[in-house]
Amino acid sequence: MLMLREKIPADWLPKILSNLPAVLVDHAHLERKAATSALNLEKYRDLYHRVKELNAIAIEELQHFQLVLEILKRRGIPFGQPHPSPWITAMMRSIRKGQRVQAIDHLVVFALIEGRSCEKFQMLANALPTIDPELAQFYASLVESEGNHYATYILMAREIDDAEASRRLDYYLDLDAELIRQPNPLPMLH
Length: 190
Ligand SMILES: [Fe+2]
Ligand SMILES: [Fe+2]
Fold this sequence. Notes:
Ferritin, globular, mainly alpha, binds fe (ii) ion, about 0% strand
C-alpha cells in the first residue's frame, strides 16, 4: 500500500518502549489532532461534497482519543501537555497557499501522517505482546483504521487533480524521508 522511502530510525522503537506513559499522552493528543484535521479539511471547496465522510473520520478519531484517555485513566497517568512534533510541523509548513493546491497538499500531508501512524502502530503491536499485552492488542486494533484514513485522503487528493496529487506525493515522500532521519530525543510517536 504505502511506498515510504525511509525506514523508521532504529532508535525509535526502544525509545518508545521505555517511555510508554509519555507515549500514551502523546498518542492521545495525536488522535485529538487527527479529529480536528479531518474537520479542517471541510473548509475546502473541493471537499464540500466529502463532508459526511470527513465527519465519519473525525468521529472515528475522537473515539480513538477517548480509548487512549480511558487507558490513561485506568493506569493513573495524568493527561498532560502536548509537545509539537518537529516532523509534523515541518511537513505542515510546506503546504502551499491557494484553495486547490492547499487542499491537495493538506490531504497528502494528512495521508502521510496516517500512513506513518499505521506503520508505527503495527510495529508496536508486534513489539509489545510480552511487555504490555493490553497495549499490543490496542495498537493492533488501530492499524486498519489508520490505514483506511491514509487511503481515503490519497483518493480524495487524486480526485481533485490526479497528476498534481502524484507530484505532491512524490515531493512529500522525499521530505518525509529526509525529516524522519533527523533525531528527536522526545518519546513521541512522530
Ligand atoms: Fe486514529
Ligand atoms: Fe487516523
